[in-house]
Amino acid sequence: LEEVTTITMPVMITMNPCEDRDKVQEELNKKLLEKGYPVQVNFLFIDFSSWGQQIDLLLADGQIDLFNCSFMESMSSLAGKGAIAPLDDLLDKYGQGIKDTLGEYLVCGKIGGVTYGTPKYSCYGNAPMFIMNKEMLDKAGISRDDITDLNSLTDALRKVHEIYPDVTMISTGAGGSLYDASGLACLKLDKDNTEMKVINYYATDDFKDLLDITKVWVDEGFIRKDAINYQDASFSALHDQSAFGTFAGYANEEICDSVYASSIAYPTCSAQLDENAWITTGNVSGMTWCIPALSKNQEAAMIFLNAMYVDPDISNIVCNGIEGVHYVVTDQGNLDYVDPETQSATTSGWPSGMGSFWPNMLIAYPWAPDTQESYAAQIQSNEESLSSPALGFVFDPTNVSDQVAAVNNVMSKYYNPLMLHQGDTDELLSNMLKELEQAGVNDIITEKQKQLDEWLAENK
Q: What pTM did the predictor assign?
């Protein structure tokens, strides 16, 4: 670019009101000029609750130049209606750092062979985990190494429940959300099975086996009786120690432990419930950055986006704020608050917990107790996780949008009550499967299989 260009970029407000937004914007723009980037950034702050709606309006008016497309309609839908720009030429000219950083994972930003988004660089592997109160586990004489699957978890829960009969063993989320299974129309991820067949997971023996286990949990009182009416996040009950544990997904136990060491006030530990962590397209594309088709500043947007992937100084400002104002660097090379008694993730003026929103938090300073080594372990986990054979495949639901809506309605009606066994389990499952067929689940499976077969033929 021949002259400095100002771009407008929305920033999501979640747990922190970002009261120092002007200071951080000023510091960022100062640093960009110091380092020779011909870009200035105008932040536009939007509450999480209205993120998708507001971004849609801004896209239609051409008012923004760069945005995170998460928590709104799918990237394939945005590309299909021409709302986002193809990025391949921009990446070739201004985004080599993004290409080098993401490597093979950039494929998860492609639709029909064209790049429309750049996924956040992160730890992409995912295995089911159970996060537990370590003191309770130790008192029951159990090592997390004893817990390797749902059956051994059930054995451990029995022992802990004997000692803590008034504590909920498994905390549920809002509406009774219990265990995130494999999904509706999906591939069965099995390192020994290369059959690329889309299935209805809820019609398989694997799902019936899961229901058998959750029935034991309900019958033995591991789950609160009013779970279907619970409105808080599952981790809320861990914070006040009214629950022993809950489910999450991470690449390995070390990373999971590190994440919750900084968010829960007492010692926790995690147990991995499956042998393998998998990298899927959904895991990689969970936070993807796009440039609007109507942006008049696409080149400047790509220059700034590339800087956030590769320049630690730029990434550190957006992820962590300003040194001496929002953080200090410790002797260990990680961050703490300038005044821990008055500052926190919700009150510091800039959200220290929002690093995951930005393109590459792993080149910024980590917040204690995380270290540079724990960030390196997250990167290393990508090498140790198994990649889905369909990595990069993105389903376009346009042709079956009515069926998708109808199927989602059926799942919202049955899934949580079924997992919590609120009624006759066999009857609930039978009714759910019948209504899924009536809603068009087989149309979705057929369409997804067709698109997958075409994708495989193009990507051998």
A: 0.86
